[in-house]
Amino acid sequence: MKGVMNLATIVQKYGGTSVGTIDKIKAVAKKVIERKKEGNDIVVVVSAMGKTTDKLIDMAKQISDNPNKREMDMLISTGEQVTIALLSMVFQESGYDSVSLTGFQAGIKTGGVHTKNRIFDIEIQNVENHLKDGKIVVVAGFQGMNENGDITTLGRGGSDTTAVALAAKLNCTCEIYTDVDGIYGVDPRVWPNAKKLDYISYEEMMEMASLGAGVMETRAVEIGCKYKIPIYVASTHGNTKRNLYKGV
Ligand code: ADP
Ligand code: ASP
Ligand code: MG
């Protein structure tokens, strides 16, 4: 999946809580613009606002106990599309050129069963062309398109996978911004005395993720490991970027 090395390219991902309101989206935009001003090319991957995905699933459950999975993907992929448009508008309003792209427009090709698709390739040209034009590229996390041209989703928490896969294709680092300030030995919300880790190997993180540490989606860590993509996890609202785990 590796593309041409470009040290100045960064993929940043902001999760649902971080983009839960318009004010929070504006705060995210400010953070991205700081890095853009430093001269970086930036791809921003975002999740649906707050609990949007849960709400969409709940609506479907009011219709059927077992809703059609293609239609589920059509439904739950909409959340991310709202966020990309709003964030891109904020960039434009702040005087920065920006474009929002759905998974399909970002070239994300997937396969497998609906609601649990896997990315098998990314046709990166469209993203690269927009970066070359100086735009901040905002990509919808969690979604892609299959060989039938249908919208697919990557499983819950799948925006992490979108971000790391894009970073793998662009051969750059991936920064995951979330509602905790890093990776802890155990979930810090459940165990308040948990210790923050300065560094964790891909293998240890994969194990933690597969045991349910939702802070990083398992598949995202697998892709990071395969392509040796440095991944940083930090708080959206902090101003320090901590190197929390990285390939060996
Ligand atoms: P986002 O919406 O940004 O993707 P998630 O809710 O998916 O955020 O992941 C962040 C959450 O992961 C934190 O709020 C935390 O409760 C949980 N979490 C579980 N295990 C860990 C861990 N070992 N270290 C840090 N956070 C963890
Ligand atoms: N919005 C999706 C979910 O809630 C994807 C993500 O947040 O990563 O699972
Ligand atoms: Mg998540």
UniProtKB/TrEMBL annotation:
Which PANTHER family does this chain map to? Answer: ASPARTATE KINASE, ASPARTOKINASE 2
Q: Name one GO cellular component term.
A: cytosol
The record ties this protein, via SUPFAM superfamilies, to:
Carbamate kinase-like
Q: Which family does it belong to?
A: Belongs to the aspartokinase family.
Function, as annotated, reads: Catalyzes the phosphorylation of the beta-carboxyl group of aspartic acid with ATP to yield 4-phospho-L-aspartate, which is involved in the branched biosynthetic pathway leading to the biosynthesis of amino acids threonine, isoleucine and methionine.
Q: Does the keyword Transferase apply?
A: yes
- PROSITE patterns given in the database record: ASPARTOKINASE (PS00324)
Annotated Aspartate/glutamate/uridylate kinase domain residues? 9-235
NCBIfam families linked: asp_kinases, PRK06635.1-4
Q: Which GO terms describe its molecular function?
A: aspartate kinase activity; ATP binding
State the reactions this protein catalyses.
L-aspartate + ATP = 4-phospho-L-aspartate + ADP
Coiled coil, from the record: none
Which Gene3D superfamilies does this UniProt record tie to the protein?
Acetylglutamate kinase-like (3.40.1160.10)
Record Pfam families? AA_kinase
Q: Which CDD domains match?
A: AAK_AKii-LysC-BS (cd04261)
Q: Name one GO biological process term.
A: lysine biosynthetic process via diaminopimelate
Q: Any idea what this protein is called? A: Aspartokinase
- Under Enzyme Commission nomenclature, its number is 2.7.2.4
**In which pathway does this enzyme or protein participate?**
Amino-acid biosynthesis; L-threonine biosynthesis; L-threonine from L-aspartate: step 1/5; Amino-acid biosynthesis; L-methionine biosynthesis via de novo pathway; L-homoserine from L-aspartate: step 1/3; Amino-acid biosynthesis; L-lysine biosynthesis via DAP pathway; (S)-tetrahydrodipicolinate from L-aspartate: step 1/4
UniProt organism field: Clostridium carboxidivorans P7
